[in-house]
Amino acid sequence: MNKVAIILVTYNSQLHLPKAMECLEKQSLQPTQIIIVDTGSTDKSYLLKYQKNPVVEVVYAPQDAGFCVGNNIGWEKLAASIEYVFFLNPDAFLTESYLEQAVCIMRNPSHRACGALTGITLRYDMQNNRSTSIYDTTGIFKTWYGRWYDRAQGEIYEPGRFPTIEKIPAICGAVLFCRKKAVDAVLISNKEVFNSNFYMYKEDIDLSLRLQKKKWHLLFHPDLLAYHCRGWTPRRQNMPRKMRLYSAQNELKINFKHSFPFGAAYSFLKYCAVKFFDK
Known about the structure:
ten-stranded mixed beta sheet
């Protein structure tokens, strides 16, 4: 049946959402359902035109509900027939065959244990409406001491650099294609995809680890290509302090919860540095 649902969580996303929706309209395999969850945009009028589309459902979450709660609300709206769910940022843009290729990969008998999937995601320059040919993510990895990072992020794109299908430790939540029954198996309290206590940041890593504990594989496939804008550069000092604090405390929660002792120690020091010294 190949029924795919898209969940997009918006917050003042009027600049990016039209292009994200345009890319979805051009997909060779059309999504069955698109759920837009707005978490408190100042001017919600940019969402009105999407309500006319019979495939799209626009949901207005409580003010500033956050990324995690927004996605959880979207999950509750899924049709019973949905087989695959794509958690997609409104500033992430898919190439035209992305959904079709992702479904084909998931349906391949050799990938029956694949619970979530991603590919190459490159940076996108919205101001000039073009790819920057710089890697945004090719999957999330972890150092021995517990720092989680997006592989190749900020580096110049090299065709063929990551040529093989491979299992990876975690997947970035900006472009996260999931098998619904896999996520069903790891819901928190039978209702939460992402831990609502996280608000935002590192929730994708937590979901990835929960999937792996249930023996689901996370795959990187080099044939999948998407683009992602970012609100600021990935350099840590350019992120707002509030966001760095969310990131640090959520990383600490993950490393403690999933029993990474070196990671917990590293994350604790990182959290203290942001909390007490990074003003």
